[in-house]
Amino acid sequence: MRDDFFDNKRFNMKRLTSAIKVIPIRLNTTKHTIRLTEKTFVGIENANYFFTDVANFFLFLGLIIKETFSTDFEFKEFLRQCYVIGYKSLALISVTGLIMGLVLTIQSRPALVTFGAVAMLPNMVALSLIKEMGPVITALLCAGKIGSGMGAELGSMKVTEQIDAMEVSSTNPMRFLIVTRVLAATLMIPLLIFYADFMGIFGSWIGVNIKGDVNYVLFFTQSFSHFNFVDFVPAVIKSFFFGAVIGVVGCYKGYHAGRGTESVGKAANSAVVLGSLLVIIVDLVAVQITDML
User: Which residue, 43, 49, 130, 277, is most buried by CB atoms nearer than 10 A?
Assistant: First the structure.
């Protein structure tokens, strides 16, 4: 009888020990399952947000194209935006273009002197500025200045419900606010790029005259001596695409800003980041197409 009691007690202790060992494993498995489920839902939610944002962007672009060809075009607002985007950016573009040409000349001259090819310096600088450096660097500067300005301005109008008030007063905000800014950016940013190229060549002439004496007319003649009309076409075409991308992205981020004041800063920041990224992507595509042709 006593042996049976101890046998039952040992059997119960074994069951209790095995239960104690199993319970933590089941709890840990449940926790990992919950964490995995939460991460999955977060990933699905982020993916849904991304694809929804892309779809809204293309719908927004379609509305811009539709309103661009409407009969009631806001010409006065378009001229005002050209003044804001173009004229008020001249100082920044002037300094940037001048420094760009000056630095490129000072950095390239020693290598060309080593190979006895100093005479090729004006043409090399002009080719680099017009084909690649001028359009890309100027477009990135415009994405920072113009794109952020559009995002912040339209975002503050969205927060203060000025856009809703325009819709109530039967004014089309898409035509008055968005189309005018996009078209002004598409027209003025290429002009700013051409101006930056000119200032870059002028800065290159200053850099050459630091250690020499070259006539300005002779320098310009040497700069464009090996240029063909075909060399200008890719730079001109992609400059218009740069302007359109910066205008559309800045207006989209500002127009779809949230209701809080914090969303104005987020709209301006995301306009700069996305605009700069798309400028680099457009430049990559343009270079690949030009290389294939």
Answer: 130
Q: Which domain holds residue 240?
A: 74-292
Report the first-to-last Cα separation within the chain, whole angstroms: 100
Whether residues 61 and 108 fall in one domain: no
- Say how many domains are in the chain: 2
Helix, coil or strand: residue 171: coil
The tens digit of pLDDT for each residue in 220-240 reads: 888 888 777 777 888 899 999
**Residue 187: pLDDT band with limits 50, 70, 90:** very high
**Same domain for 162 and 254?**
yes
Closest of 243, 247, 240, 220 to residue 129, by C-alpha = 220
Give the pLDDT band (50/70/90) at residue 23. very low
Report d(CA 218, CA 221) in Å as an integer: 5
Dihedral angle, C-alpha 256, 74, 279, 86, nearest 10 °: -120
53 and 147, same domain (yes or no): no
